[in-house]
Amino acid sequence: MRDLIKEAVNNLDAALELRKIVLKKINEKKLKESDIVEVVDAVDDLSLEEIQKLGSNLRKFPMGCDLIEIGVGPCSSSLTLTQFIENCILTDYMGFPIHICSYAVADIAEKEGLNPIDVLKMVLENVDVPIDIDHFGKYGPMRFPKEITHCYGDCYFKGPPFKGCPRDRIHKRLIEKEKEHANEFEDWVRLASTVCINVVEEQGGEEHAAPLDEMEVVAEAAKKYGKGLEGIFHIGDGHDDLITGIKACIDLDVDVFVVEGAPFNRAKDRLKVFAKAVAVSRILVKGGVVATNGAYEDECRIGLRSGLNTILTGFPLNHHGYMCGYSPGTAKRGNFGLRRVMRIIREEIKAGNVNASFIDKDVVKAIALGNRFLNGNIYPYSIGGFYLGDAHWACIKESNLCKKLNVNKTIDDISAEKVGLIGGRYISWAIAEKAEEAYISDIDSWVERATIKILNDNGINAYPCNGDDKKAVENSEKAYITTFIPNIALKILDRIRDKKVELLI
């Protein structure tokens, strides 16, 4: 794969082939540690500029997810129940997924005389966006003493290198408190959209995370209920630690990689290594989504330029509020991380450093509608060696929004005839798979070409139209506008004006 990685820096076709090879090995359970080492070493040989190009290429559809989003932590043990719920409502209004620190929810519940699961249910009554749960162990929400729940982020404030907690208080747990609500364990997983596990114990971070065998229990529960699984690992030394963390995530069949840098980035050239960690993750992550839960401002920027999809942040008093977007000397408890991260992402996109779009509620709704149209037959379902949808699709599938929405027709209503498809992304893949012949037009010439190749490689009769929507219509018995974003779909319909053309919305 080394030569292919080098070629993929400047060649999208090579990048597509690279991802196909990796996904095949992952699906067949044949990706070995030697493969991970080869990828890490090959990316390490590249310059910083080349790493950024590689990661950006691999973020492009259909090799990865070409959306940038923010995951928001609204909770803290210091908040009242009312403050917490209001933070969730505001996050939902913005359309960002909610990252639930389950220990904080349990602390809030205890203050109110409630069960932890009752507070989670209150969140679900008030929001439509996906719910991601973290700090979750084999008994359910982890519980920590006050010196941890009210930690001021000394390690982030002081900066690298990480040498354990400066106050020697990680990773103490109140196990007996956790056991009191162990009967709620499966309900938490059942109600969530995604679940986080932390593999840093495997990287030598015993003082910072739960044992890996406990994370295996959580991972198995997530898979049992069809929930997305996120794996958090430290960058560490940028080589051996990176390899160990990624291997642990792959062994646990993780969908999303979550990279933690900042004080947990001990590399000498920390910006190049952060970029490398993101680009390597882009190559090796199963579900096509790469996130960070810990990155100083300069790491956030270099990560976005290197293929990052998601930055985790939070409201004041939530510990994620300082873990991303701030720098040593300013990263501390009480920071309002959400607004800082939004500014960083906006600036990087505006400057042309990021080849992706900032996700909003319209896009989230479109993906949810796409899920309903496909009857949920999305990732990890695959066509031609590539997943139909990415981990975002699976996450949104498990949200209240997806459950509430209805569509006029589903994939089952599409007849097997010659179809014209305006748009070459996942919806068109599913329709083409069912059709006798498919004529596909996309405004992005490479997306159209990649879609045709993937479908043809799977024995599907699909033909390119070189971005000519009218050609797709003329060659078909029925044509469909495949986007579920209303204003875009209506503009296309107004431009074509042919009785054969239908909206799917």
TrEMBL record:
Pfam families for this protein: Fibrillarin_2
Highest rank taxon of the organism: Archaea
InterPro entries on file: HcgG-like (IPR016760)
Listed NCBIfam families: monoFe_hyd_HmdC
Name of the molecule in the record: Uncharacterized conserved protein UCP019375
